[in-house]
Amino acid sequence: MKRHPLSGQSTPKSSLGFTLLELMISMSLGLFLVAGAVQMLMTSEHTYRFNRDLGWMQENAKYALSLMTKEIRMAGYWGCNSGQSASTFTNTLNTGTGDWYLNFENAINGYDGDDAAFPNTVFPVADQPILALGAELPDSDVVIISRGDGDSEVEVASHDTGIASFDVVGNHDHPEGKILSISNCAKTAIFQKTAGATPSVVFSGNTETPGNCTEIIRFPNVCSNAVIPGNPAYDFDSAGEAKLMAAMISAYYIRTSDSGLPVLFKQTLDDSAALEEKQMAQGIENIQIRYGEDVNGDDVVDRYVSADQVTDWGEIHVVKLYLLMRSLTEVTAEAQNFRFAGSDYTSTDKYFRQEFMSTTTIRNRG
Known about the structure:
The chain is α+β, with helices and mostly antiparallel strands.
């Protein structure tokens, strides 16, 4: 026992409290434990953000590839006729403007992002990441696909070549201005509906935009209503089995959205033949496309080339897609190495990047 200096009472030794040394040791241990807990929390939070962004990237890449490969696989589908030569495929639209969305003659085509002729006023160029050692990614490509919409297919009952109209079996819901196709197992024609209530479809005159350059369907197409010896009006009803369906054309490309995210966009035609742009998938920073071309006519791919090196779009049988995905946020501790379209790169930011690929065979070729 120790006597208290003021009260004169004795105080047990166990009640004297901690010494300064004991307090410092206790505080140090406490700080160490808190620091460890904070570090574990930060590591856990970083792991969560990384896995969240990785899952987001994988989900968007899977969706984008499934969307594009489905359309590529069906490129050039016009019912039972897959031919797209001048003798089997005709386009009556006013195509004098040269706009890509009126060119249905090619089932598939596109633009190489690094080509000097790339139409950057039509397809805005996406922002590119700054890479180490002065390296640069190739500019993103564009792929364009045209096909018939099998879900809107109706049977043609009759074709009146004198008044440029068709009647279908049952009803249809195609409005005036819609770009349509009519096809049997021998020939296909693209035109714009200008009038007609179901079950009729009329394509005479130029009351819509772009309008039709002729009211007579012939092979090859001639933008004139005059009688041309040797190239008469073609009657789709005479051959039978004719089907009418919506004609679709789509362009896929990458551009930077207003939010600053790289996004896969799609341009297509609406029911009035006006262009509309849709945001399809976020986080896609770049797309590179290689086309498998048959150069000797044996229906076997001989080489894979970029769009600017294709010699005949009618001989493209396979399409390879390379997508470069970028994380939503900067989730890495340091700059990362990544591989894309056969080349290695090093970033200067802390975004995580990953390549996704697919190879698609066009069903209506060969």
